[in-house]
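Section 3.1 - Work completed
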Amino acid sequence: MSSSLTLDVHASVRTLPSGWDTVVSNSPLGSVFARTEWLRAIERGTDLTPRHVVVLRDGTPIGLCPNFVSEIALPIPVPSAVAPRELVSIEPGFGGPILTGEYGATLDRLLEGVRTAATGGVWGHRIRTLSPAAVQYADLLDARGYVPSVLTCQLLVDLTRPIDAVFDAWSKERRRTARKARDAGMTVAQVEPSATEREAFYDAYAAMIDRVDGVRYPPAFFEALHETMGERIVLFRADIDDDPVGWHFYVRDEERGSLHHFFSGLREEHFGHHPSSRLHEAAMEWASDAGFGTYNFGESNAAVTDGGFRYKSQYGGDVLPVVTWERGIARGRWAVYRAARRLYRTAGARAARQTDATSRTTGGDQP
């Protein structure tokens, strides 16, 4: 009965109960990003602070919610000592509650743990869900003060079809660029992630992220991923005349039967060779042969005006929302922050529309 439910908050993956990964594997909402290997890599390789919540019944986990404390992104720099913080489930990756039964009572206990974990200037709690099936918790979360939004999405390609049908669904332009890369002698292969290979990939990844002013994860995070995830990490490299021209970094999400494209290492000077189209082509074929049901292009802005979204859409995938749920913990400060963020996003969207109307899209390859 619900009276036997107990609650634990864990400041490290090392103390999580042994049944954590079993709950993740057996749940239709489970994914590789909720597994202890991924959580351990974040703990080892970033400065994010773990605050994982577990509900147990008679000592057996029946509900869990992985979380990390991180600084809230602001449009202006703020000293770390005074920066507002939030509890995120989770980023990098995706999280949210996973419940196996007694849903209302278990979720109440999980959220009680979230409030307990929200120390040290934490203003709010943010949940990022990977599976659209997470909407089954919508009424429960809404009743407990969580507000949904959809700002990003993922594009999934169905690999249960014959591979020729998969490629036939690509746009004419993507088929052309992949063919052009093949005709130029570009080869793509899965490579062993040796220390030299990891360093070469990271250099290209860092250059690409810095070019677009994105969030660049430190080398320690990638080293931790290789150490903790093992064969769940798949690295593909594109070469022309034995010279590397691009990498794609994948995560094998066995829980969801999906090969998940998570990072790219592409230098601007190689875009004209179209390594991205060729890498996607080779990885889709490999994933199909390996028995994966879907190929996930990773997270994109949920905006048809966004160049990255438009590019990925050319590969024939289905668009699925990444639903985010937020709730204030420091209510007054959270309300002020949300109002200011809404104004900032409105101004940013207006500026983006103006830029899009006056700029000309170039024809180079993208991630």
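Second construct:
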Amino acid sequence: MSFRQRAEEEDALAQVQPASEHCGEFEYKRPPFAFGFHTTKGPQTSKGRYAQGKKYVVFYLDLSFIFLLELRRCRMAEGCMMALRYGMVFFNLLFWLGGCGILGVGVWLSVTQGNFATLSSSLPSLSAANLLIAVGTIIMVIGCLGCVGAVKESRPLLLTFFILLLLIFFLEILSIMLFFIYQDEIDHYAQRDLKKGLQLFGTEGNVGLTNAWMIVQTDFRCCGVTNHTDWFEVYNASRVPDSCCLEYSDNCGLDNPGTWWTAPCYERVKDWLNENLVALWIFALCTALTQILGLVFSMTMFCQAVKVETFYA
């Protein structure tokens, strides 16, 4: 090999691997042997691209994880809403059926018994039949609104159901508060009105009032509003209806006063209410709890319907 060829070969090796100084002499380092992947670091541009690609991979993994969490949460929310919808439908269906039953009883009393259980002379329309018809109709309307609104997830129906139920709830609370505040005035007015109703006992067109007084005096073993002498002003004589007798018989109210009930009916009814006060409070609390649950469920479904419509808008 000539000197010129050897010099050209050394120049070519120098371009592949730079020389390093060792002990005052220059030696050439051969690149290390690598099998498969290169063990030496690439250029700076390659390292930048590798880091950027790694960031993209991490970002995509985080995004996929968040998507899976949101999907799972949406499925859980959808399941909860489905259970809430079925609960609303079942509750309002029972509510509607109960209203139908109350309305049916009221219509039956109105057709067969007339103005049954009318005690007030100033409010003759306030009979048991009319009260049952009114209450049954209101319950049916509210139950129908809630049931249809839950099935169709209709915002107007759910909002109407919520407003009506909230209005009834506030009216009930207001009535209870006014009753306890004006309890003495209510007692005085009720006794005076009931005494006026005695004047209509047995007259034509007041079958409901007559039947109501006969049932109350027989079941509670009482006579008159505040005393059995309340009937003396009605008959203008010392006599009472036959339902005031200890042992019922025709014209027994004309006999000796010793055979009459003397307890006042107003106080007897109040005592009966006080004895069953716990049951009445339990019934009131259950009714209030049912109404509160209906308010919460209906407003929850209404808000969910608003979110869905806003999302797809």
